[in-house]
């Protein structure tokens, strides 16, 4: 795996070394692997003092690595600037134009779209952060956008069917078109958009270019769309948020049970639903239905089981819109290849010539399906799916390339996510917006992945590393067959999964907040210890303590003093005090002034006071104050009280009894004598001292 | 740093060693250091005598020693040690100092197996975490001597701790102590990282320590090998098991992390039909048996406890590491002496001051644990009949101190010296060990070297044929303590 985290002490290592080490780690970054990106991000975060070297190293890597590896590196850049921020934004921002454009010119269309999506997010604040400034300053991002627009315009002019075709209208806008069409939401309601892609785009409601290799993307109808029945934006936003929540829940479940086919279906359906929500305007009725269903899903906790579905929809099914049950007033586009060209006049395409359009439709009709690898790349959420599963999805979505809302709603219905619509809801063919239907599967999936929350498998993974460590851990059965296989993932759990290493003792910590806090405490502990050891007055008189007696050892909770907080220690101490109250021999009484000796009124033996370092005072140990201010042995007192409530004896006593009963067949005499320390019998002050060697010093 | 405990005259080896340890920095300057490049999944094996100093520093990559990762660029100094530094990722080592042998080991298939065992235990611990009523894995490691049992236990403990577990380690080998001098059984729940140089580190002391301390529960086993006194050995196993089981019940983290038991090679006695192992398996409710080295032992274990038997405990045969070498009697003796010395004086990093206590014969309650080896070694016992309520064939005999005790390690038990019950004497855990530095039969006085400034009152003091006498632990200069 990657992430040989830079070695060397935090302060000692030179920036050049850190940069070189980081560069070395980058060489392993070959795929969009969220663990690796996470690890590298946390390394970058830890070594912010070497940000310049790390930035340089990353920049060089992006420039020199193979085109196929550029995107993961760019995702890493994205992750670093979003999760760490300054100073990386400064260092990386300086040369961002070159970093981005050099990579952009070398990669394929798919990667370019990913890069465009990423670029878009850089103009905005990090989702969910308090920071209101964009990731990069607009003056850093804008030149890149302008260059992209120029490039695409040139491409459009040279070939109308080229892959990157922005409509000329976009030339003047600062924002490049986004694949997840923004026309669904009137700009005034833009803030309802959960991930805020491009909501400052004034023309956002115009259909943007679903960029990419979908030939349909050139069927552009700017300005044609008018929002249907205006929806209260927060309504849509609420549903979207709910859907996003459900998706993340399902993703978490799916992560735990990657082989649960039903879960996968539901997840896919939910993602499709999210796409529809994001890409199309839905009328009140369908929104209501969806909302109802979503809330039912969320409330149920256990989502409804989809009805068994032997086969997915076939193209024939979808060619006949009338046969598809559909909510009324759904903004549903005409289906280009099943419709006579005469239907096209509805679409006013001022700059498109019909011949080109027909050519595109022909292409579509030829069933240009995206290849599986592209789909995998486009929808990392499906990376775990098998080939056949992916084909199912493809069939489901690509079989009718011209539609999406229709068949996705239908498949949602089939999967039990949406109730069947009322029978009288006749499908409406006269939908005003022809727009999103032309998205091919790949671009659909692409937009899916781009609208997924950042917690998904995008370039900025935020999966908690505790979970990370768990997910990376293989389950190994306890048998001889499993013994010989080399499992690098086990090594990963011991090394790379805990990238945060103490340079003094080599101990590792997780790259989480908690891990960092622990490491900080651990380093403090090293410092304190070294300081104390250097102080000869403390260390010179050191001696080994007596070992613990059984009961104390049994009740002693091992903790690591180097990482335990004061609060934890206090809690532990409080818990221990609680326990001590039950142990009479550890009770003590502060010695009254001038009183160094005392006679126990129960056993008439002498008690001597001792100095407690903990209390900084003279105390009688194993002592209790009884009525009248007399001090007696606590054990004697307990013995007396025990006699009085013999029958109610339980709890701690059972342990002692168990210990005493050891040695099977012991008689009464042995039971008493076998455990002089653990039974609640009398212990002299000296006995108690032995157990408290750390705290007491003899007078 | 002044080390008063080490500046005493007559400390012999310990002084030489410790002072050498203190000046490693300067001595390594004079010695030529060399770089060794290790490919992934190879190991650097070395054998260092007690008179030698051998320093290793990881300059790049990752390396571990028995489950504990070496910190980058930190020098680690070894003495009296036969070990191997393993790298999964490849690394570069800077090596300096002397060793009896050092070479690159390519055969690390054993490490893959060991790591897989760790993976199996982790799987079982995860299961225990989910079904909280069940405990984690309880592992018994058996095999002949010098096949890497203790190294396996240490590696499994080290990995588990790295993963945030708190496994409980039980050592039932009286020849080599764990956090203790030899002659003891130890149970310790490991809650903090292990050490590279010292393995399980150090038990609690009164001052600060370089690494977090480990708190052991200690029982006294005054025999070098179980077959000497199988009954006592079994009773001590029962007692240890009871305490450990109680501890695991008290602490859910420890319970989930499970138990790993290290045993001496002499435990495997086919003649008694593996009587002691059978006892161990039932007392600790073992859930996994790992056998090392001996194919016969594996087959016997598998027949007796394996899936086909009524016990149905998985029995796995684990490879012996290529670097496992026999530690001859002289080496073992030196190791034992070193452990005793370190109990009183600490290590060069954590130095300790022992204390001297003088007791009159009358104050002392000394018992001798009889064993065949002791009887053989001391044919002329000067026994006071009135002080010996037990017949001479008893396991423990009250005795008056004599010259025979000189140089011996005695165990101070928690139980009172007025204790007359033999079983109580046997089962009581150890409060500490003391070293008999002087027996004055004329003045009827015994001088002890004890770890703690506090006297132990009338507690029972027990000694036996094991461990053997150490002659050069202290000289005459310890009076001031």
TrEMBL record, chain A:
Name recorded for this polypeptide: mRNA 3' end processing factor
From TrEMBL, chain B:
Top-level taxonomic group: Eukaryota
Top enzyme category: transferase
EC nos: 2.7.1.78
Keyword Transferase: yes
Keywords linked to the UniProt accession: Transferase
Transferase as UniProt keyword: yes
Protein name: Cleavage polyadenylation factor subunit clp1
Organism for this UniProt entry: Vermiconidia calcicola
């Amino acid at each position: 795996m990657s992430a040989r985290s830079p070695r060397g002490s935090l302060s000692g290592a030179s920036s050049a070394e850190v940069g070189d080490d980081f560069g070395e780690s980058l060489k392993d970054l070959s795929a969009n692997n969220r663990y690796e990106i996470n690890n590298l991000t946390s390394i970058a975060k830890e070594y912010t003092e070497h940000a310049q070297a790390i930035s340089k190293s990353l920049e060089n890597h992006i420039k020199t690595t193979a085109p196929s590896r550029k995107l993961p590196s760019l995702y890493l850049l994205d992750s670093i600037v979003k999760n760490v921020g300054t100073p990386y934004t400064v260092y990386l921002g300086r040369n961002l134009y070159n970093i981005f454009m050099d990579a952009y010119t070398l990669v394929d269309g798919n990667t370019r779209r990913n890069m465009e999506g990423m670029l878009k997010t850089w103009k905005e604040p990090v989702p969910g952060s308090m920071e209101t400034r964009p990731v990069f300053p607009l003056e850093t991002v804008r030149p890149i956008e302008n260059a992209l627009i120029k490039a695409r315009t040139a491409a459009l002019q040279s070939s109308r069917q080229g892959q990157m075709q922005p409509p000329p209208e976009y030339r003047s806008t600062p924002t490049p078109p986004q694949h997840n069409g923004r026309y669904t939401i009137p700009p005034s309601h833009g803030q309802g958009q959960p991930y805020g892609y491009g909501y400052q785009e004034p023309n956002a409601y115009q259909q943007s270019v679903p960029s990419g290799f979908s030939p349909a993307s050139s069927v552009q109808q700017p300005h044609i769309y008018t929002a249907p029945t205006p929806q209260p934006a927060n309504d849509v936003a609420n549903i979207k948020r709910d859907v996003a929540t459900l998706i993340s829940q399902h993703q978490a479940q799916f992560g735990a049970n990657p082989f649960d086919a039903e879960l996968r279906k539901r997840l896919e359906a939910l993602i499709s639903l999210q796409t529809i929500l994001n890409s199309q305007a839905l009328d009140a009725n369908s929104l209501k239905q969806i909302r109802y269903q979503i809330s039912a899903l969320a409330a149920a906790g256990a989502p409804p089981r989809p009805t068994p579905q032997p086969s997915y929809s076939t193209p024939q099914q979808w060619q006949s819109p009338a046969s598809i049950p559909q909510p009324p007033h759904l903004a549903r586009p005409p289906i280009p290849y099943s419709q006579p060209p005469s239907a096209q006049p509805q679409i006013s395409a001022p700059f498109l010539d019909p011949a080109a359009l027909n050519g595109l439709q022909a292409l579509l009709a030829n069933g240009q399906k995206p290849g599986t690898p592209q789909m995998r790349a486009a929808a990392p959420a499906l990376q775990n799916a098998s080939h056949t599963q992916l084909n199912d999805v493809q069939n489901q979505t690509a079989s009718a390339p011209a539609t999406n809302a229709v068949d996705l709603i239908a498949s949602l219905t089939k999967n039990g996510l949406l109730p069947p619509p009322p029978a009288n809801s006749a499908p409406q063919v006269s939908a005003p917006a022809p727009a999103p239907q032309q998205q091919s599967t790949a671009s659909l999936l692409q937009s899916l992945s781009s609208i997924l929350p950042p917690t998904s498998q995008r370039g900025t993974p935020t999966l908690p590393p505790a979970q990370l460590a768990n997910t990376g851990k293989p389950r190994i059965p306890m048998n001889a067959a499993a013994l010989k296989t080399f499992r690098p993932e086990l090594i990963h759990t011991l090394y790379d999964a805990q990238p945060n290493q103490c340079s003094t003792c080599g101990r590792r910590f997780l790259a989480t907040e908690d891990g960092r806090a622990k490491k900080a405490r651990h380093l403090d502990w090293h410092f304190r210890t070294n300081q104390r050891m250097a102080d000869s007055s403390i260390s010179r008189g050191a001696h080994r303590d007596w070992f613990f007696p059984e009961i104390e050892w049994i009740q002693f909770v091992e903790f690591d003093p180097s990482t335990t907080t004061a609060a934890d220690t206090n809690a532990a101490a409080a818990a221990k005090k609680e326990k001590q109250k039950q142990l009479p021999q550890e009770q003590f009484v502060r010695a009254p002034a001038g009183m160094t000796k005392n006679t126990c009124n129960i056993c008439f033996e002498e008690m001597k006071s001792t100095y407690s370092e903990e209390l900084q005072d003279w105390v009688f140990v194993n002592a209790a104050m009884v009525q009248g201010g007399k001090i007696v042995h606590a054990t004697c007192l307990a013995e007396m009280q025990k006699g009085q409530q013999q029958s109610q004896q339980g709890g701690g006593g059972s342990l002692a009894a168990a210990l005493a009963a050891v040695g099977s067949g012991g008689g009464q005499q042995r039971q008493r004598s076998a455990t002089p320390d653990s039974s609640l019998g009398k212990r002299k002050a000296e006995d108690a001292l032995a157990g408290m060697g750390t705290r007491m010093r003899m007078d | 740093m002044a080390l008063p405990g080490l500046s005493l005259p007559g400390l012999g080896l310990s002084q030489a060693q410790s002072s050498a340890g203190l000046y490693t920095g300067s001595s390594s300057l004079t010695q030529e250091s060399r770089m060794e490049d290790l490919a992934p999944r190879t190991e650097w094996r070395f054998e260092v005598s007690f008179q030698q100093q051998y320093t290793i520093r990881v300059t790049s990559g990752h390396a571990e020693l028995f489950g504990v990762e070496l910190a980058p660029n930190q020098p680690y100094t070894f003495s009296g040690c036969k070990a191997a530094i393993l790298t999964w990722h490849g690394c570069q080592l800077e090596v300096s100092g002397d060793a009896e042998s050092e070479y690159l080991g390519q055969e690390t298939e054993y490490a893959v197996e060991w790591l897989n065992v760790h993976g199996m235990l982790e799987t079982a611990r995860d299961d225990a975490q989910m079904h909280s009523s069940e405990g984690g894995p309880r592992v018994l490691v058996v095999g002949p001597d010098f096949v890497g049992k203790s190294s396996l236990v240490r590696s499994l403990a080290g990995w588990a701790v790295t993963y945030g577990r708190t496994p409980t380690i039980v050592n039932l080998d009286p020849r080599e102590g764990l956090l203790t001098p030899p002659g003891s059984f130890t149970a310790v729940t490991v809650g903090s990282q292990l050490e590279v140089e010292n393995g399980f580190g150090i038990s609690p002391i009164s001052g600060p320590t370089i690494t977090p301390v480990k708190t052991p529960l200690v029982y006294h086993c005054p025999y070098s090998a179980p077959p000497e006194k199988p009954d006592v050995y079994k009773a001590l196993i029962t007692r240890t098991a009871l305490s450990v089981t109680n501890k695991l019940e008290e602490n859910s983290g420890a319970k989930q992390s499970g138990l790993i038991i290290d045993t001496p090679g002499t435990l495997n006695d086919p003649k008694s039909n593996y009587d002691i192992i059978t006892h161990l398996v039932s007392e600790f409710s073992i859930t996994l048996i790992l056998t090392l080295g001996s194919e016969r032992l594996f087959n016997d274990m598998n027949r007796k406890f394996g899936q086909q038997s009524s016990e149905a405990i998985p029995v796995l045969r684990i490879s012996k590491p290529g670097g496992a070498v026999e530690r001859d009697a002289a080496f073992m003796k030196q190791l034992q002496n070193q452990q005793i010395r370190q109990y009183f004086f600490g290590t060069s990093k954590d130095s300790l001051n022992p204390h001297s206590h003088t007791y009159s014969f009358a104050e002392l309650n000394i018992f001798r644990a009889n064993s065949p080896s002791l009887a053989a070694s001391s044919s002329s016992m000067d026994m006071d009949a009135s002080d010996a309520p037990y017949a001479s064939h008893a396991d423990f005999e009250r005795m008056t101190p004599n010259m025979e005790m000189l140089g011996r390690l005695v165990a101070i038990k928690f139980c009172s010296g007025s204790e007359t019950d033999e079983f109580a004497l046997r089962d009581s855990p150890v409060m500490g060990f003391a070293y008999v530095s002087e027996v004055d039969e004329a003045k009827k006085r015994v001088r002890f070297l004890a770890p703690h400034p506090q006297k132990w009152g009338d507690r029972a003091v027990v000694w036996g044929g094991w461990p053997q006498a150490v002659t050069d632990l202290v000289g005459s200069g310890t009076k001031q303590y």
